[in-house]
Amino acid sequence: MKKWYLSFDWKRFSNRKAKYEQKRKGRWNKHRKRIHKRKYRERRPILKARHLQREAAFHARTVISPEVFSFINNTQEVLIFLNKLQDCFKRKSDVKIDLRHCTTLGVDTLTVLLSCLYNERFRPRHCQVYFQAPHDHTARQVWEQCNIKQYLVEYTSNPQIKPSKGNIVHVQNKEVEAQQTAELIRNAMQDLYDTPPYKCLAIQTIFIELMGNTHEHATIKTTVHETWWASVYYDEHKKKAQFIFVDNGIGIFETALLKTIKSLYNDLPSLFDNDAEIFRDVLTRKYRTSVSRTRQSNRGNGLPEIYERFKEGFVSNLIIISNHVVAKMQENIFTTQKIPFQGTFFYWEHGHENRRN
Amino acid sequence: MKTVGTENSLSISIAKDFSDTPGPRYESQGKFSGQVFFQELLLPKFEEALKHNTKLTVDLDGTEGYASSFLEEAFGGLSRYLHDDKIVLEHLDIISLDEPHWKEKILKKYIPKINHE
Q1: pTM exceeding 0.90
Q2: I want to staple A339 with a disulfide (CB 3.0 to 4.6 A). Which of A79, A256, B24, B34 is the partner?
Q3: Does B102 touch chain A (CB under 8 A)?
Q4: Phi (first) and psi of residue A291, to 5 degrees
């Protein structure tokens, strides 16, 4: 055996085998490199984008949300948060919204946030927004149902997410779109009731009045129209549908009241000290004809009509926030706040006890 | 759009003949406005009712809901157009079983009192 290994034949065989193996491995390595290169070429833009995104997120300014991130229950802190956010956007900086410590997340706040982030006066198009989702289980659930990220992906388009049972549904438009809100109501009613009719005429009235007000009064220029946002969320625990309507216009007090009442009550300055009281009178039709922007006797029915629907019991827990005024109808509280909300916010609930038809 | 007419009266069902989702006051504000309803349906039918000296019945039921501005523009507009609230009230009948308060508002509030002196 030893002789064989020392023989010339073996050495020749061994050398040839080694050369062949070397060639084969070389070929294989070349092939592997080629595949790797091709794969890398394909993945490079994705990796680059991911890298840039991570870097941008790292450099983005962080704005921490309040623990109770609810516009109806913690209005002032949410407004401070929104002002901080706007400051960052004014500096043309990307923003990372940190929701990790938030324990209460309201659909109302998310609708307001969405309306602000879509508003070009609030956020320039090139400014990116990143989110850090809440750690709290309930808040996380609302966050995931809201799917706010999906809206922010396509910034320029008009996203329409298909309504699905139990989820939060948002719609937006500039015109009065009665069909859109009717669908929104139907969606909520199907969650709420087992039997048809899946509609609520009073809520549709409220929506049309609000859409009409936004279209006509939310901007100073009559040719430019503000976008409105409407959301509905079915709260399974409370067995109630929550409705939210928001616009980022100039607000109720900038449109009608302030200017008109100033001219009406020039001699009695004490009367327009309290915007909240004036707002109460507008809702109860005390200043209807005189306060309406158009000053026509047949106009200015919108807000009183909404209040009447609430009084008749078709909706409950009606909350209105506009400029300096916060009106909580259920408790009959009309207050003024330090930090104003630039726009109009309406919130109401509808449950089994509100069903009339 | 179609309207149903009988020998003695004419009728319009907003849900069937116009839209089940009536919209705002003016055409510029959105679809199915009170202005369009007035111009395209209410006024021609009301004139026809006047011609035949019958009543026009407008059925408000079956829709998803109304805004006050829609109804005011349509019915108030009719009264303003004809400059006579008495004729309008004489020849107009409203059916609103779903929301009875609209009938009262239209007849007492939205159709403005016009001075006949």
Answers
A1: no
A2: A79
A3: no
A4: -90, -30
